Amino acid sequence: MNDTPESDDVKSGKYTAPALSKGLDILELLASDADGMRKSDIAKALDRSISEIFRMLAVLTERGYVSFEPSTERYALTTKLFEIAHRHPPIRRLSSVAIETMRKLALEVNQSIHLAIQHGDDILIIAQVDAPGNNVTSVRLGARVPMLQTASGAVLFGALSQSESKKFLQRAKNGEPDILQSFLENVRTFEERGYCESRSAVIEGVFNISVPLRDYSGAIIAALTIPFITRLRTPHFVSREETRARLVEAGQEVTALLGGNAFTGA
Fold first, then answer.
1. Which part of the chain is the IclR-ED domain (predicted)?
2. Of 96, 101, 140, 131, which Cα lies nearest the Cα of 262?
3. What is the pLDDT of residue 247?
4. Which residue segment(s) compose the domain that 127 sits in?
5. Is the pLDDT of residue 29 over 60?
6. Domain-located, residue 266
7. How confident is the model at residue 5, as a pLDDT?
8. CB neighbourhood size of 26 (10 A)
9. C-alpha dihedral (102, 103, 107, 108), degrees to nearest 10
10. pLDDT surpasses 50 at 259
11. Dist CA 109 CA 96 (whole Å)
12. Beta pairing partners, 213
């Protein structure tokens, strides 16, 4: 879209909507706290009065974006924003196209599988299929997990521009050095092999295997991932190597269904 005098004014901050800004500040703050927050803590974090924060919380609660738990006096995000995001055609199409392939693969290899996109410095799970067996290791639909801690994140890192990746790594340096080092090794693995396979950073005994989904230009738009667990005393157990091969094929299949080029890039 071409810049206009109006768009220049918006960029410069000439036009303001204080109530909207306060509401968005609250939503963004609550998105970073899974346990919810009391209104006094919200007011303090945003440097606002409790009365103006209360008015905004009342509206957000009434509209269903925020929930209130009387026993703890905490406000938390509902899933409404996530549901709205799924009405957005690109995400809706991505998950709807991928889901049948995911179900088929989960049944074939008896492993859970999830689909993730980049969301800031996190990955966001937009589709998830459980393994058909009794023992399940899966990630909750709608969960956000730091990119640094996941194989999906190493794959999605390849979607960042040079400037974005540089800024991301600068922010990552403020965290634990060993986590960053493992992440960079996973990125190199993906660049060399076209998939990422690494030990889970949060669950012992789980190997995360992740492959990219690409658009028509070959750019990465999502990651398809299996948190692989070794099943004992299971007939027809599918090995990690075979599971990886089938996941790679599934990623290529979904990419083709999306009209993308599975063989461009890494």
1. 80-260
2. 101
3. 97
4. 84-257
5. yes
6. no
7. 46
8. 26
9. -40
10. yes
11. 21
12. 222
CATH number for the domain including 195?
Answer: 3.30.450.40
Considering its fold, how many domains does the chain have in total? 2
Of 21, 40, 42, nearest in space to 31 by CA? 42
Other CB atoms within 10 Å distance of the CB of residue 98: 25
Q: Report the pLDDT averaged over residues 50-63.
A: 92
Instruction: Tell whether 61 and 110 lie within a shared domain.
Output: no
Q: Say which residues have a Cβ less than 8 Å from residue 261's Cβ, sequence separation at least 6.
A: 214, 215, 216, 217, 218, 255
Residue type at position 168: F
Tokens of residue 26, six digits: 């609250």
For residue 89, being part of any structural domain is answered with yes
Structure tokens of 114? 């999830």
Residues 95 and 73 reside in one and the same domain: no
Flag whether 265 is in a domain: no
- Residue closest to 186 by CA, chosen among 228, 144, 158: 158
Are the beta carbons of 228 and 240 closer than 8 angstroms? yes
Indicate if 140 and 21 belong to the same structural domain. Answer: no
Rounded mean pLDDT of 209-229? 93
Final residue before a domain boundary, out of 37, 63, 78: 78
CA 30 – CA 76 distance, rounded (Å): 6
pLDDT tens, position by position, 70-124: 999 999 998 787 767 655 556 778 888 899 999 999 999 999 999 999 988 999 9
- Provide the CATH number for the domain around residue 12: 1.10.10.10
How far apart, in whole angstroms, are the C-alpha atoms of residue 22 and residue 32?
16
Q: Quick one: 162 and 217 in the same domain?
A: yes
The reply to whether 62 and 191 lie within a common domain is no
